[in-house]
Amino acid sequence: MDPLLGTWGARIMMSAGHIKMRGVVPKPEMDALQWVDREVDLPGRGVIPVREASGPDGAPTLVLLHGLAATGRLNWMTALPALAEHFRVLIVDHRGHGRGIRTGHFRLVDCADDVIALVDALDIESVFAVGYSMGGPIAKLTWSRHPDRVRGLVLCATAKHFVRPEVRGVASAFFPGMVVTARMLPDVFRDRITAGMLDGFSPGERREHARGEMAMMDPATVLQATRAVIRFSSHDWVSNIDVPTAVLVMVHDTLVPARRQYRLAASIPGARIFEVDGDHLACARAVDSFVPALVHACEYVSAEATAADRRRGPAVVA
Question: What's the angle, vertex CA 32, arms to CA 31 and CA 34, rounded to 5?
């Protein structure tokens, strides 16, 4: 059985055990003056929550896209202080996750379009899309659907696809029934996912912070998102990516095996690999390795994008 099918399928269905974090539950500890929480209305789409760090004057903008069943804050808060020293940073919650837009039908392309709708609402010309696990497909789709708005990609703990093509249909077939049940019994499913997330943590402030983040999820949408991730593949078009790209490989990852992460990097022309001494949850369990690698990767794609702009020269206005 494909490891992702076994974990993201059965474990999400039973207890969401694949997202157990037995190390750090990120808790906001950054000086509140350096970031602000707000809700941004995306016309025709909904209201999206944003945690924003302004960064240095004129700094390029990163949009951080979290993984399955997590929230933006849980996924990225360990890295926000370091990133904010160099960049303007936007952290969002995807549809049905945390405080994200509520939807009856989760689609990765809608999450990608939400990113650009947010960029439009904030009057930002272009961004660097940074995706972790499920956020990787969303980042790639954001580039694919809006190539003139994405200057570069940073792809963490992710792959071209997550489940072998020959089992993709079978792997996702049982989810529609689970979604119906989750809509009937949302508290039961939410409790199971949350219990899996918090398993192994001692009672305390950090655990309760994480519980509060998870309490806002829509479990039926999380199940739909699981199915969407299982069905996703960028195999046929990932080689068309033509913006500076960094791939953070979690060298001890067993959920998205490191070999698949290396293959992703090999498929994108010019992609640079940054290795992280951690597993799929390195953002929480291997912070000392993950955060510096992430900062360096973001600096790399930003510098490469700037160099490409200089090579092209100033735009000619007719």
Answer: 75
Cα separation, 138 vs 150, in Å, equals 12
With 0.90 as the threshold, say if the pTM is over it: no
- Residue (of 284, 128, 143, 157) closest to 229 by Cα position: 157
| Interval 59-91: pLDDT, tens | 999 999 999 988 999 899 999 999 999 999 999
Which pair of tokens denotes residue 105? 């039908």
CATH of domain 18-165+231-307: 3.40.50.1820
Edge-to-edge strand list for the sheet holding 245-250? 35-42, 46-53, 88-92, 61-65, 127-132, 150-156, 245-250, 272-276
User: For residue 150, what are the β-bridge partners?
Assistant: 127
Instruction: Provide the residue ranges of all domains of the chain, joining segments of one domain with +.
Output: 18-165+231-307
What is the CB neighbour count within 10 angstroms for residue 267?
18
